[in-house]
Amino acid sequence: MSFGQGGPAWGPGDNGSGGGTPDWAALADEAAARSRKKRWLLIGGGALATAAVVAIVATAIVSTGDSKNGADGKSASELPSPQTLPSGTAEPQPSFSSVAPPPPPNPHDFISSAKKDKAPLSADTLFPGKTLKMGDRTYTKGATARTTDCSAATRGSLGATLESNGCDQVIRATYVREGVAVTIGVATFETEAKATRAKQQADIGLAPLAGDGVPGFCDGGHAVCRNTSNSYGRYAYFTISGYTNGKSVTKGDKNAFAPGDDLAEFTFRQIVARGESQAQAAATGAP
Q1: What is the pLDDT of residues 24-80, one digit of tens each?
Q2: Rounded to an integer, what distance in angstroms lies between the CA atom of residue 120 and that of residue 224?
Q3: Distance from C-alpha of 189 to C-alpha of 170, rounded to nearest angstrom
Q4: Which residue among 64, 99, 106, 277 sits deepest, i.e. has the most Cβ atoms within 10 Å of its Cβ?
């Protein structure tokens, strides 16, 4: 072997063990391979670590979400039940009676029997004031009268009928309008049954009542007058109406019929009002 100027030289294929120049390309490939291997080791280790964490979390979730066992391994049926909350409050609650209140008094009961019908009764309570207005018709009140001799307020057979049924009294009042006068007579009885029977048996016979500005009418002469009868509760009431000039009342004579109908309607309302006022007083405890 000869040596040239500048020192020894390595031939091709020499790896440096014999003192020649290193193979830099081979060394670079080896270094790159080692670097890649190191990176894969790091990536693999991280993946393994991540998988381990996921497995731990999944195990914890499965353990926590177990619906069959409690934290101490007991079943749900063995665990203590939650505290029962109070169903009500400490404040007092309203109470309601199971007993139904009694029904209100029936007004009809008070005017059907003398034992309950105790309100004051007179010509002034039945027929108050000086005039009476019914619709567009106004009547002027004349004389009034009250008697316990029921026959004295009648003529004909009516008196006997009232007496036989136990009539207590008869109250009369007379009204006049445009030459037509009407007397209304109210007879009272102990019970409704007696008043009803008296009305059914009644015949023409209420005596007209003149005076206090009303001249005589229906005085038993030849003039024809109109008579009506009715009853409600323990009251029977009758009317007699006719012309003050002695003219006869004819069939369908509206001028003569209207006064009797108006007075009968007004009397019925007054009797009903007596029952209602007494029932209301009884319901409220008023004397």
Answers
A1: 555 556 655 666 655 545 445 554 445 444 444 444 444 444 444 444 555 555 555
A2: 36
A3: 10
A4: 277
